[in-house]
Amino acid sequence: MKTIAIDMDGVLADVYAQFIEMHFAETGERLSQKDMIGLTEGEAFPHLLKHVNSKGFFETAPLITGARKVVEEIAKVYKVFIVSAATEFPLSLGEKHLWLSKHFPFITWQQMVFCGSKEIINTDIMIDDHFKNLDYFKGKTYLFTQPHNENANPKNHERVNSWEELKEILL
């Protein structure tokens, strides 16, 4: 059985929507994802560090459309691991575990990999929205489109724009 490493933030969890809502609640200013194309997350969200260090940020992030359904289907054919950098921000480790348990109850604790760097990951396939994770990976890579990578040329990575598109490719 082939193995897949799936990133959490920006691939399963819609952290852009979470940042936009938290920014609006704090400032009254409604940000648009269109205006963020080509910007790093730090450039797009001036209060990023404050928000990711806020209780509830990771635990209450909304799901990306189609993620749960397609991951559940993929898990019938592949050994799935959710791989998330969860040690940089103190609150994220516990909150990410709770979020995954809530939204993906079919993913066991043995399939949750929380780390600092993803360079050690050795699955057949990796799905991520950041080049820093895909560029060092030795297997097949899929770049999940997010505003910060939308203008970039994925070169050695296949770009995917949705979970439905991934379903067509992987199943």
From TrEMBL:
InterPro entries: 5'(3')-deoxyribonucleotidase, HAD-like_sf, HAD_sf. GO terms for molecular function: 5'-nucleotidase activity. The active site is at D7, D9. Gene3D superfamilies: Deoxyribonucleotidase, domain 2, HAD superfamily/HAD-like. It comes from the Bacteria. It holds the Pfam family NT5C. GO terms for biological process: pyrimidine deoxyribonucleotide catabolic process. Coiled coil: none annotated. Belongs to the 5'(3')-deoxyribonucleotidase family. This is 5 nucleotidase, deoxy, cytosolic type C. It comes from Cyclobacterium marinum (strain ATCC 25205 / DSM 745 / LMG 13164 / NCIMB 1802) (Flectobacillus marinus). The lineage of its organism: Bacteria, Pseudomonadati, Bacteroidota, Cytophagia, Cytophagales.
